[in-house]
Specification:
heterodimer; A: alpha/beta; Rossmann fold; nine-stranded mixed beta sheet; B: Mth169, Chain: A; 3 strands
Chain lengths: ~220, ~80
């Protein structure tokens, strides 16, 4: 699988993501946010971090970076897109995923290992898991409180677009949502960081399973 | 020409910062304030153009506000 990791000013999980993807067998290139063309890729990853210092709203300025127009085209053509943490925020700001990510309910920056339940296994992104499996990915965010209107939440539920739910909701997210797909199932946005758990030395291998499943 | 733009959270959108500010006001013995909703204020300077309002409107729609969670209010000052 050919994967590209977009680097925004302020991205800080981009190299971890590259390591995790390469360990799972992907051929990875880094893509600068000012680029106006994507190389030929199967998967585009928007990594975690604090792009543009979270100015205005998290992900709001990155959503207007030149490369994002290309990422939209890639997604519209059925290409896979993964947004983790700040990447998820960018995906909601671009409109590629519905809803928005608000400040955590308790106002704290939360950085810890987090149990998640796999809510939908009928997708390439969760190929390694079965519905109902509990996995542990770390979370590290200030604005991960997923919000969407009642009608949008109903649509997400009805269309099986929820990928992961928090086992114990840490941040106030609606319906315990930790990650969602778009309707087509080729875009996944999630607050937790699978790229941080790819070795027992790093506290777990659930992320390794996640990326290996994605490569199949 | 100037424009003042207020961006506010829509009704029903949780505002934990506003709630924390409300508590801090009470802790400062400032009484009688029953609710706080935090928003954003932008001051824009722009060219004198007939379509200035439409331009500011576009700026709000595309960037200054996120229509999923926020409303905006524009005031033009000649």
């Amino acid at each position: 699988m050919k994967a590209g990791v977009v680097v925004f000013p302020g991205s800080n999980c981009d190299r971890d993501m590259k390591v995790a993807l390469e360990a799972a067998g992907a051929d990875v290139s880094m893509v600068w946010h000012k680029d106006t063309k994507l190389p030929k890729l199967d998967l585009v990853v928007l990594p975690g971090g604090f792009s543009y210092g979270d100015y205005l709203r998290c992900g709001a300025l990155s959503a207007h970076s030149p490369i994002v127009a290309e990422v939209k085209k890639h997604a519209e053509n059925g290409g896979y897109v993964l947004g983790v943490c700040n990447g998820f925020q960018v995906l909601t700001e671009t409109g590629l995923l519905p809803g928005a990510l608000l400040r955590n309910r308790n106002l704290h920056f939360i950085c810890k290992s987090q149990s998640l339940q796999v809510a939908n296994d009928n997708n390439k992104f969760t190929a390694a898991f079965q519905k109902g499996d509990v996995v542990n990915f770390p979370i590290a965010h200030h604005d991960g409180n997923y919000f969407a209107g009642e009608d949008v939440l109903k649509e997400l539920e009805d269309n099986q677009q929820i990928a992961f739910r928090y086992v114990e909701n840490p941040n106030g997210s609606a319906n315990d949502i930790a990650g969602i797909y778009n309707k087509g199932g080729n875009i996944l946005g999630m607050m937790p960081h699978p790229e941080r758990v790819i070795s027992d030395l790093l506290g777990g291998v659930d992320g390794k399973r996640f990326f290996e499943g994605l490569m199949k | 020409m100037k424009a003042k733009v207020h961006v506010t959270l829509k009704n029903g959108v949780l505002d934990p910062q506003g709630q924390a500010i409300l508590k801090a006001l009470a802790n400062n013995n400032i009484k009688g304030i029953n609710s706080v909703r935090q928003g954003k204020f932008f001051e824009l300077e722009l060219d004198n153009k007939a379509d200035a309002e439409a331009q500011v409107e576009e700026a709000c729609r595309k960037l200054l506000a996120n229509s999923v969670i926020e409303n905006y209010d524009i005031e033009l000052i000649a």
